[in-house]
Design goal:
The chain is α+β, with helices and mostly antiparallel strands. It is built from 26 helices and seven strands. It has four domains: about 140 residues, Up-down Bundle (Glutathione S-transferase Yfyf (Class Pi), Chain A, domain 2); about 60 residues, no CATH class; about 160 residues, Neurolysin, domain 3 (Orthogonal Bundle); about 180 residues, Orthogonal Bundle (Neurolysin, domain 3). Belongs to the peptidase M3 family.
Length: about 675
């Protein structure tokens, strides 16, 4: 196939993938050629007769696999954001092949010997750190194992990659199939007018004109439960949410956990959690266990107090599908805050331009120019060119904000082109959210949670856009999992910063700013329900931890889950985990295995950094420059905690987090 667009470097600005030219039949040949080319390059490096140097070994490896990187980046973003049956078939076939390919490199003994023989003397700090990382990666990938153990490792890795793909595809299918069909609009009482229109639009997209469809988001708690007055419908939605994946994914979960445990043992670790944490910023599994365990009693006590308040208001014993509804009633009664009345002030384009982009301009001097001439991978994708304060071009930002049946749940950021001096590339990044799309011509009105998520994901985007590293290995968000959420969590603070909030929170029809008393009540109301939020998060984190510190393989997924929550003293029937095992995509198909603790671990750094911004004047260019220079620009090119100390001047303190969570 001579016209395959992957076979040549993109001629578009910033090497944006040429989406208008890419078709499904291009992927498989590009993967085949890409893997073959990289193996040839690797063999030339491993078989070189020249003494190993940084340039002919490490730098050469960094340059290898250019075609494979191009197709892999485009394909897996497409598989997550806009899949098709054809894409899913390719994914099933290619994922284990890519695992075999990675093992062929990491278990190449001649290559590993050359890497270990590269002299470290005279290398600058980034090169020395890259050499150290390569040695570590190869060891963690089994390079020091004997032939029989390596053979078993290859088999484990291949099965793990296949099962992870199956889990992901099962979950997408089950989530789509579990959407709730509603015939009578009266049953949607309580929903805002725009939410009802979005439900009608979702039904129309499924060929159900005249009906309404409530689609499910990834977490257990579905946002509509806070507004629907029909208790039976709330129950139906909740049960559909928590039962996802039980039939097809329950056995996969056990097998995935079992395989990960065996692989960890093969590599010399007590369990999978030990294997993961050994390469994170957390000092040990014990440190993670202790931190999570210390937070449980206070969080559970807070949740019990909140439950009593809700029960008193409701006048009967609550069920899980009642919590959000009556929590909203408490907010209305105590703070005079009605989330439905807030949505008209959060129109998507205004939040993006006058909120997210405005904060980035004030803090970092960035400007954003929409480029309708540049095509994304789906008609909903918007492309923006990003400029630094001096007018120099920085990169491209793509926004893909609407939910669709071809997109997995949740919100995330991907790098489509990694910045590096070595390759002469500037960053291209994309943010994905899952906001219900309104009928054509109608405004997209967001919930407060969606506003916060948009700021959060843009924090990841900034981490990618500000990358200023020599080598692609270190680009942007290529940092430990328990550090990567830190910059994105910090960016959430600007959603509520008075100057920023006043700039974007304007009524979509009148342009009037959100009344200050409503702003004040909204911010005050955020303190309520912290117990519930912390417990549902901790329950998920501890469930992840239990699966990856197994001592023996469980017989039943749901029984193991129940016992794990009981053992952690966080088995509150009213507050189920944010994700149950059978739809916990983060840990089974999303790279967060034994790593969901990362959000709270990173939040320690985040809360401490928010204090720093406040102590130093908040939304100023000087503060932005400092944060960018010391942290965001570094990517993975320095040890993360060394970078934090350079920025903060000391180790992080946990007290700001405990105060934020109401745990002091």
């Amino acid at each position: 196939m001579t016209d395959n667009p992957f076979f040549v470097q993109s001629a578009l600005p910033y090497r944006l993938p040429p989406y208008a030219e890419i078709r499904e039949e291009h992927y498989a040949p590009a993967f085949e050629r890409g893997m073959a080319e990289q193996l040839t390059e690797v063999e030339a490096i491993a078989g070189s007769a020249d003494p190993p140097t940084f340039e002919n070994t490490i730098e050469a490896l960094e340059r290898s696999g250019e075609l494979l990187t191009r197709v892999t980046t485009v394909f897996f973003n497409r598989a997550s954001a806009d899949t098709t049956p054809g894409i899913q078939e390719i994914q099933k076939e290619i994922t284990p092949r890519l695992t075999q390919h990675a093992d062929a490199i990491h278990l190449n003994q001649r290559l590993f010997a050359r890497i270990r023989a590269v002299p470290a003397d005279g290398l600058d700090p980034e090169r020395a750190w890259l050499l150290e990382r390569y040695v570590t990666d190869f060891v963690r990938s089994g390079a020091e194992l004997g032939p029989e153990d390596q053979k078993r490792l290859r088999s484990l890795n291949e099965e793990l990659s296949t099962l992870s793909t199956t889990f992901e595809q099962n979950l997408l299918a089950d989530t789509n199939a579990s959407a709730i069909e509603v015939d009578d609009a009266a049953r949607l009482d309580g929903l805002s007018e725009d939410a009802v229109k979005s439900a009608a639009e979702a039904a129309k997209a499924r060929g159900l004109d005249g009906k309404y469809v409530i689609t499910l988001g990834l977490p257990t708690a579905q946002p509509v439960l806070a507004e629907l007055t029909d208790r039976a419908l709330r129950e139906q939605i909740h049960k559909a949410s928590v039962e996802r994946g039980v039939r097809d994914n329950a056995p996969l979960v056990i097998r995935l956990a079992e395989l990960r445990a065996e692989r960890a043992a093969l590599l010399g670790y007590g369990n999978h959690a030990e294997y993961v944490v050994a390469d994170q910023t957390a000092p040990s599994t014990r440190a993670v266990t202790e931190m999570l365990g210390k937070m449980v009693p206070a969080a559970v006590a807070n949740a019990h107090r909140e439950a009593e308040q809700l029960r008193e208001l409701a006048g009967f014993d609550l069920e899980p599908w009642d919590w959000s509804f009556y929590a909203e009633k408490v907010r209305e009664a105590r703070y005079a805050v009605d989330s439905r009345l807030m949505r008209p002030y959060f129109e998507l384009d205004r939040v993006l331009r006058d909120g997210v982009f405005y904060a980035a301009h004030k803090l970092y001097g960035l400007d954003f120019v929409e480029r309708p001439d540049l095509v994304g991978y789906h008609p909903d994708v918007r492309v923006f060119e990003v400029f630094d304060e001096d007018g120099s071009a920085l990169g491209l930002f793509l926004g893909d904000y609407y939910a669709r049946s071809s997109k997995r749940g949740g919100a995330w950021m991907n790098s489509l082109v990694r910045q590096s001096v070595l390759e002469g590339t500037r960053p291209v990044v994309v943010n994905n959210l899952n906001i219900a799309k309104p009928p054509e011509g109608e405004p997209t009105l967001m919930t407060w949670d969606q506003v916060n998520t948009m700021f959060h994901e843009f924090g990841h985007a900034l981490h990618g856009l500000f990358s200023d590293v020599g080598f692609p290995y270190f680009s942007g968000t290529a940092v430990p999992r328990d550090f990567v959420e830190y910059p994105s969590q910090v960016n959430e603070m600007w959603a509520v910063w008075p100057e920023v909030l006043a700039n974007y929170a304007r009524h979509h029809e009148t342009g009037e700013p959100m009344p200050q008393d409503l702003v004040d009540r909204m911010l005050e109301s955020q303190k309520f329900d912290q117990g519930h939020g912390t417990v549902e998060y901790l329950a998920a984190a501890l469930l992840d931890w239990a699966w990856h510190t197994l001592e023996e393989t469980p017989a039943d997924t749901l029984e193991f889950e129940r016992q794990a929550l009981r053992n952690a003293h966080i088995d509150l029937p009213l507050v189920p985990p944010r994700y149950r095992s059978t739809y916990f995509a983060h840990i089974w198909s999303g790279g967060y295995s034994a790593g969901y603790y990362s959000y709270i671990w990173s939040e320690v750094l985040d809360a401490d950094t928010v204090e720093w911004f406040k102590e130093n004047g908040g939304l100023t260019r000087e503060n932005g420059d400092t944060f960018r220079r010391e942290l965001l620009s570094k990517g993975g090119s320095v040890d993360p905690m060394t970078g934090f100390r350079a920025f903060r001047g000391r180790d992080p303190r946990i007290e700001p987090l405990l105060e934020r969570r109401g745990l002091l």
